[in-house]
Amino acid sequence: MNRISLTQYLVEKQREKGLIPGELRLLLEVVARACKRISYAVGKGALAGVLGEAGSENVQGESQKKLDVIANETLLEANLWGGHLAAMASEEMDHPHFIPNEYPMGGFLLLFDPLDGSSNIDVNVSIGTIFSVLRLPEGVSEPREEHFLQPGDRQIAAGYAVYGPSTLLVLSVGDGVACFTLERETGSWWLTADHIRIPERTKEFAINASNARHWEPPVRRYIDELLAGGTGPRGRDFNMRWVASMVADVHRIMTRGGVFMYPRDAREPDKPGKLRLLYEANPMSFLVEQAGGAATNGHERILALQPGKLHERVAVFMGSREEVERVTGYHRA
Ligand code: P6P
Fold first, then answer.
1. In this structure, are residues 266 and 77 in contact, taking their beta carbons and an 8 Å threshold?
2. Beta bridge partners of 287
């Protein structure tokens, strides 16, 4: 079977549909190459001494794994010199990394969670990289942190790599969602699924149920109904999954449907949720909506939210439209 490579896919989006400028194609190919390198490091594991703690903390006050730091540095180094970016922001860095004067500055902003699901690294469970692309606002010659604070609807591309049994790259430039599989022998990314659609109806939900006592009433009601299954108001049984790697849970939903939830909870009432808006929820919401799903913070579309801070958090309900609309409706009841 003659498959299409990532390069050909992006060239066709650029040439045939005029959908993406050359600089964005370059950006996405650079990110894909960085994800390939991260995949190789992840795959080596203990053999390359990349497991365990780095002995440092990130801006979130979370201890960093060695692979968190390696993945972050890999993405920074890959994107510094290409001339396609104005700046980068990462979960692992307090402030954005601006392109140094020695390199030309481009018109895009790249945001990423370099290694999502770090708690799974040392136990060999799937982890991933999440990225989001924004335009530098018109007329800006000196990029600043505030220029990253754009609603998710302004994203022009987003994607994730999932380092699992196979390494996949799932991305959208606003024309549907495509999935590429890494062929390790040649280092090529091959198109293995296109125009991915999330089924509107599902029987599978993902949430960390150990937090149940901390949830708000609408979430308690929604989950209790799922757990009641055929004996309750839903009249049918449901199944639960929780990988504790957003990338792995969302990829399952992109593949067979489902609803992923990380609600706000009473443990940290001043925080609207655990997950970060700009480089976790926004890119994943972009992909989910491009695949026909829905994504809200319980009250409104995540992509419509106006960010106030670079590392701000948000509650997340995303996936099969029917379920996201139901649980969001309970918040409005
Ligand atoms: P918990 C990983 O740390 C992460 O940011 C997401 O990838 C994942 O969905 C969530 O946190 C897991 O959180 O509280 O279940 O460990």
1. no
2. none
For the Cβ of 63 lying below 6 angstroms from any atom of ligand 1, the answer is no
DSSP string, 100-162: PTTS---SEEEEEEEEETGGGGGGT--EEEEEEEEEPPTT-SS--GGGG---GGG-SEEEEEE
The closest residue, in CA terms, to atom 13 on ligand 1 is 244
Ligand 1 centre to CA of 203 (Å) is: 22
Tell whether pTM > 0.90.
Answer: yes
117 in contact with ligand 1, CB cutoff 6 A: yes
On whether the 6-193 domain is CATH 3.30.540.10, my answer is yes
Domain 204-332 belongs to what topology? D-Maltodextrin-Binding Protein; domain 2 (3.40.190)
Q: Does ligand 1 have an atom closer than 6 angstroms to the CB of 128?
A: no
**Same fold? 6-193, 204-332:** no
CB of 258 closer than 6 angstroms to any ligand 1 atom: no
In short, whether 8's Cβ falls inside 6 Å of ligand 1 is no
pLDDT per residue rounded down to tens, the chain (333 residues):
689 999 999 999 999 878 899 999 999 999 999 999 999 999 998 888 888 888 888 877 888 888 999 999 999 999 999 999 999 999 999 999 999 989 999 999 999 999 999 889 989 999 999 999 999 999 999 999 999 999 999 999 999 999 999 999 999 999 999 999 999 999 999 999 999 999 999 999 999 999 999 999 999 999 999 999 999 999 999 999 999 999 999 999 999 999 999 999 999 989 999 999 999 999 999 999 999 999 999 999 999 999 999 999 999 999 999 999 999 999 998
Ligand 1, atom 3: nearest CA belongs to which residue?
117
